[in-house]
Write a structure and sequence with these properties.
The chain is built from four helices and ten strands; from the N terminus they run E-E-E-H-H-E-E-E-E-H-E-E-E-H. The chain is of the alpha+beta class.
C-alpha cells in the first residue's frame, strides 16, 4: 500500500523482501535481426522510391518514413521484465521502452522445479510442450535459470536470468523445488 511523504507517493513494495524486478534487453539476433534489417531497407526504399517518382517529394518521403518508423521500430526493440511479488512470478514484454504486454504470470509455489539451466536438471524433463524464453540471447549461459510448471497436463518451461534476490524469494515460496546457487552476478 502506498503512503505519502511531503505530497509524494512512496511505493514501499520496492523495498520489500518479497518484491524484485529485473529487466533484460533482447539482443538482436536471428529473426529479430532480420526484421531490423528488413525495416531499415524498407525505410530507405520509401525515401529512394519517392525521390525517383517525384524528385521534389523528399520532404514528404521523410515524413512518411518518420511515421512508419514511429509505428514499427518499437516492435524490434524488445525488453523482458520479470517481477516477483507476493509469491507471484510475472513476465512482461516491453516494446520500445513504452508498450507493455503481460506474457506470463504464475504462482511460485506451483513450479515443479526452479534450477540452473544445465543438463543436470533439464534432463529430468525430456518432453516440454512450450518454452518461454526471456533471456537476452539464445547463447546466454550466465545466471540462466529455468522453471517448470504443469498446465493442462503438459510441462512448460520458462528460461530467464536469475538474480540473488529473486532466488531468495523462490526459496521462500517454494523451498523444496528450488535449487540454489551462490554464483549469480546480480
Amino acid at each position: 500500500m502506498a503512503t505519502y511523504h511531503d505530497g509524494a507517493e512512496i511505493d514501499r513494495s520496492v523495498n520489500s523482501i518479497n518484491y524484485t524486478e529485473f529487466t533484460v534487453k533482447k539482443k538482436a539476433e536471428g529473426a529479430l535481426l532480420l526484421t531490423k534489417i528488413g525495416l531499415i531497407v524498407l525505410y530507405i526504399a520509401v525515401i529512394v522510391g519517392f525521390f525517383m517518382w517525384l524528385w521534389y517529394a523528399g520532404a514528404l518521403s521523410a515524413v512518411i518514413v518518420a511515421i512508419v518508423w514511429f509505428f514499427t521500430w518499437p516492435y524490434v526493440n524488445i525488453e523482458y521484465e520479470y517481477t516477483t511479488a507476493s509469491g507471484d512470478l510475472q513476465f512482461t514484454k516491453i516494446y520500445g521502452g513504452k508498450k507493455r504486454k503481460l506474457v506470463l504470470e504464475k504462482k511460485i509455489k506451483d513450479m515443479e522445479l526452479i534450477a540452473p539451466y544445465t543438463s543436470e536438471y533439464t534432463d529430468k524433463y525430456p518432453v516440454i510442450a512450450k518454452t518461454y524464453d526471456f533471456r537476452k540471447s539464445v547463447k546466454q549461459t550466465e545466471d540462466v535459470y529455468f522453471a517448470v510448471f504443469d498446465e493442462k497436463g503438459e510441462k512448460h518451461r520458462i528460461l530467464f536470468q536469475c538474480t540473488n534476490k529473486a532466488l531468495k524469494i523462490f526459496e521462500k515460496y517454494n523451498k523444496e523445488n528450488t535449487v540454489a546457487t551462490d554464483t549469480l552476478h546480480y
